[in-house]
Design brief:
- This protein is α/β, with parallel strands linked by helices and 454 residues long.
- The protein folds into 3 domains: 6-39; 71-276, P-loop containing nucleotide triphosphate hydrolases (Rossmann fold); 282-452, Ribosomal Protein S5, domain 2, CATH 3.30.230.
- The protein is 26% helix and 25% strand.
- The chain has 12 helices and 21 strands.
- It has helices at residues 41-44, 77-83, 103-116, 130-140, 155-165, 190-207, 279-284, 331-345, 370-382, 408-417, 427-430, 447-452; strands at residues 7-11, 17-18, 34-38, 92-97, 121-125, 147-151, 169-173, 210-216, 235-240, 247-255, 263-269, 272-275, 294-301, 304-316, 324-327, 352-358, 390-392, 395-396, 402-403, 422-426, 440-444.
- Strands 6-5-7-8-4-9-10-11-12 form a 9-stranded mixed sheet, sandwiched between helices. Strands 15-16-14-13-17-20-21 form a 7-stranded mixed sheet. Strands 2-1-3 form a 3-stranded antiparallel sheet, with no helix packed on it.
- The protein is globular, with a radius of gyration of 26 Å.
- The protein starts with 6 loop residues before the first strand and ends with a helix.
- The chain binds thymidine-5'-diphosphate and magnesium ion (MG).
- Thymidine-5'-diphosphate binds at residues 97, 99-105, 136, 139, 268, 270-272.
Length: 454
């Protein structure tokens, strides 16, 4: 941006920046989204650097001091794992999710546990009154005096309070309500959200205060407009789940301090969120016995194997074009697997409707459930029941071959823990595992081998 320029146009949809007004945004091709905004020289660009250090002397890696960066535990193992082992001091974490999913509840519970640990906590709400927060807190339990509350939307006041109180962790609920005086647009707009996050980042890095930002997901499914925040923060967590079901999944999308494919499973109860330690058991509760089209498969979520039930219903279609529906898995993947079944096994399903549902409402992208899906479809089509104590996993290729998957041993161990006695898995994986006592492992090379077993 040119020096001395005081106004810039921002696209409210994607954050595209332009020096002149445009009818259509070149970034996202939306119309009438460009809004003029004032930019003072102070916050137009980056202020200092992300570490808050003003000196620009380069240092060698050996000189970087790591000793004070011990992580703080939240006393919620599910959350700690998603964070990569606890909260890193001075980190900025974004917790995104649909309204009402439980973000405020989760963070209030984090505050409760950490305050009980003797840390100083600051919970800043721009959405609710102190009374409303107290009502929620009453449901959760007793709180220590170490937790301080503030109802505020002015970012300047928030900044002053954090500087004055110097808490270990501060929670901003939510970033869409924060208001920066120097920016003329309304709270929740792209520039407000971005500038507020920028100020919070400087605070977190400069003071070593860990900050959690709550961000509501827009109707496009992204936090506060497409990706404007994600690149600025250290960690992005999404809180998801069916609002009608009681369980919630916390998913790491970005993490500068740990792996991103970890998930945490929680259950929303009367007295707040409780951790679900045994996710597989939870996912399998309610599985029908002796029903065709029902298969148990296993997916790795980060380092954790999760067993889940795949349900398929294949029935005669009354219309020219059969209906296909996939809930919890990729629709195109289902079509592909059904095409493989038709071609390689001669199952004539072209005049059948097919519905596949991953029970429990989980969304799985791992191809290791392919074999489970194929067997569920075949089981429903042929009306043959697959044994309740059997678990199936493996990736399917286009020529009908069953390909190996990673971490087969962990999957088999998880199945054994839950009382499964038979495991159908890719042939190449059989050599890599030592089956636990009481577990029969059957290696299959093609889908035909697997379907022949039923
Ligand atoms: P909330 O944390 O306010 O959601 P968010 O901050 O993501 O908008 O959670 C709201 C929902 O959680 C609300 O529908 C009520 C429910 N809830 C419980 O079921 N039990 C509880 O103990 C609490 C505090 C909330
Ligand atoms: Mg809330």
């Amino acid at each position: 941006m040119a020096k001395g320029k005081t106004t810039v146009f921002f696209c409210q949809n994607c954050g595209y920046e332009s020096s002149k007004w445009l009818g259509q945004c070149p970034g996202c091709r939306e119309w009438n989204t460009m809004v003029e905004e004032k930019v003072s020289g102070k916050n137009g660009g980056a202020r200092g650097n992300a570490t808050g250090r003003k000196d620009a002397e380069p240092v060698s890696l050996g000189e970087v001091d790591l000793s004070e960066k011990a992580r703080m535990t939240t006393h919620m193992a599910e959350l700690d794992r998603v964070l990569g082992g606890g909260i890193v001091p001075g980190s900025l974490t974004l917790v995104g999710g649909d309204p009402g999913i439980g973000k405020s509840t989760l963070l209030l519970q984090v505050c409760r546990h950490m305050a009980a640990d003797g840390h100083k906590l600051l919970y800043i709400s721009g959405e609710e009154s102190l009374q409303q927060i107290k009502l929620r807190a009453n449901r959760i339990g007793d709180f220590s005096e170490n937790l301080l509350l503030l109802c505020e939307t002015s970012l300047e006041t928030v900044e002053q309070t954090i500087r004055k109180q110097m808490p270990a962790v501060a929670v901003i609920d939510s970033i869409q309500t924060m208001y920066h005086e120097e920016i003329s647009s309304a709270p929740g707009s792209i520039s407000q959200v971005r500038e507020s996050t920028n100020v919070l980042m400087q605070l977190a890095k400069g003071l070593g205060v860990s900050i959690f930002i709550v961000g509501h997901v827009t109707k496009e499914g992204t936090v506060a407009g497409p990706r404007v925040l994600e690149h600025m923060v250290d960690t992005v967590l999404y809180f998801e789940g069916d609002r009608h079901a009681s369980y919630r999944i916390l998913r790491g999308v970005k993490n500068r301090f740990g792996s991103t494919n970890e998930i945490g499973v929680f259950e929303m109860k009367e007295e707040g969120l409780s951790e679900v330690k045994n996710a597989s058991e939870f996912m399998l509760s309610g599985k029908p016995e002796g029903a065709s089209g029902s298969v148990v498969s296993c997916s790795m979520e980060g380092t954790r194997p999760i067993l889940l039930e795949i349900q398929a219903l294949v029935c005669h279609s009354n219309f020219g074009i059969p209906r296909r529906q996939a809930i919890g898995m990729d629709f195109n993947r289902l079509n592909l697997l059904m095409a493989v079944l038709e071609k390689r096994l001669n199952l004539q399903m072209s005049d059948c409707d097919a519905y596949v549902n991953l029970a429990g409402g989980m969304r799985i992208v791992e191809p290791a459930i392919d074999l489970g899906v194929a067997m569920a479809v075949a089981s429903s089509f042929k009306n043959r029941v697959i044994d309740d104590k059997t678990i199936v996993f493996g990736e399917i290729g286009l020529s009908g071959e069953v390909r190996g998957v990673s971490m087969a041993a962990q999957r088999v161990a998880e199945a054994a823990k839950l009382g499964f006695t038979t495991c159908i898995l890719p042939k190449v994986n059989v050599g890599q595992i030592k089956p636990p006592a009481g577990m029969q492992v059957i290696g299959v090379g093609t889908v035909r081998d697997a379907i022949d077993l039923i």
